[in-house]
């Protein structure tokens, strides 16, 4: 016969405390004064009985879901081509699990529709959000910022005060272009990795043009060919550049994925 699953009442009885105290201890409810000795008795009783509160019980006791939402502003094809994504997900998952949270992953082809994360917020399914690939034309971000919803951006938005994690897009683009100039190239093309409404794309474009200007080279619009996320678009952009009457002698591709496509 299967062993009966222990309850919070069983833990309370073994530890000699109330069920409320058991709930406070096991759910780490803040602002409740419980002596270290009592806390230890509850934890030991729970260990002996192999008891742990369900997610629903934790939520009721603490007012939190213990879940963090991660919204990826990418479709399946883009995700498959994103060489950085596995490492990014490993880091996010490890950090969340260390703090006793679970990760809720939401993919979105078109983040500005808001539906990618509206339900997570509206139904209080998560305690906070990480929004990867934020877009400058997304009106919901400003609303969430105003409402002080716990939100971190994976990618910088100009004029937004929300905390974000990002590389220095402008400086990186500037250094890459400067390196090509120092090698003696003057006709340097630029292949972006995303549409211009992404702030990272804007910043990399600015860094590219800044390096040209500071070294006395003119900006040539015909040397900028659009590409978006997938290696194939980088390849197509490179093919168009090579068909110019005066092709570039060097290319700054704004991401590894675009570079792989261009090299093909």
Outline the structure in words.
This protein folds into three domains: 8-62, Orthogonal Bundle (434 Repressor (Amino-terminal Domain)); 67-165, Response regulator (Rossmann fold); 169-263, Response regulator (Rossmann fold, 3-Layer(aba) Sandwich), CATH 3.40.50.2300. 47% of the residues lie in helices and 12% in strands. The protein has helices at 8-15, 19-26, 36-48, 55-62, 76-81, 85-98, 115-122, 139-146, 169-182, 199-214, 231-242, 256-263; strands spanning 67-72, 102-107, 128-132, 151-154, 164-165, 188-191, 250-253. It has a five-stranded parallel β-sheet with strand order 2-1-3-4-5, with helices on both faces. A two-stranded parallel ribbon has the order 6-7. α8 links the parallel β3 (128-132) and β4. α1 (8-15) crosses α2 and α1 (8-15) crosses α3 (36-48). The termini are far apart. The mean pLDDT is 84.
């Amino acid at each position: 016969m299967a062993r009966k699953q222990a309850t919070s009442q069983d833990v309370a009885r073994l530890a000699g405390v109330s069920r409320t105290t058991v709930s406070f201890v096991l759910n780490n409810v803040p602002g409740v004064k419980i002596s270290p000795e009592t806390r230890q008795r509850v934890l030991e009783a729970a260990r002996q009985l192999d008891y742990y509160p369900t997610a629903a019980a934790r939520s009721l006791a603490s007012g939190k879901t213990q879940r963090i939402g991660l919204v990826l502003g990418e479709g399946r094809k883009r995700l498959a081509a994103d060489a950085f994504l596995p490492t990014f997900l490993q880091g996010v998952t490890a950090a969340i699990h260390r703090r006793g949270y679970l990760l809720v992953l939401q993919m979105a082809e078109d983040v500005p529709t808001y539906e990618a994360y509206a339900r997570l917020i509206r139904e209080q399914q998560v305690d906070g959000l990480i929004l990867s690939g934020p877009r400058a034309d997304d009106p919901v971000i400003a609303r969430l910022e105003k409402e002080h919803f716990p939100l971190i951006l994976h990618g910088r938005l100009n004029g937004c005060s929300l905390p974000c994690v990002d590389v220095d897009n402008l400086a990186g683009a500037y250094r890459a272009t400067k390196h090509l100039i120092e090698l003696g190239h003057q006709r340097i093309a630029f292949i972006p990795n995303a549409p211009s409404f992404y702030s990272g794309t804007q910043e990399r474009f600015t860094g590219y043009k800044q390096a040209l200007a500071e070294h006395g080279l003119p900006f040539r619009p015909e040397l900028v060919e659009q590409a978006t996320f997938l290696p194939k678009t980088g390849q197509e952009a490179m093919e168009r550049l090579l068909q110019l009457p005066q092709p570039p002698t060097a290319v700054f591709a704004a991401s590894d994925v675009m570079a792989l496509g261009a090299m093909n």
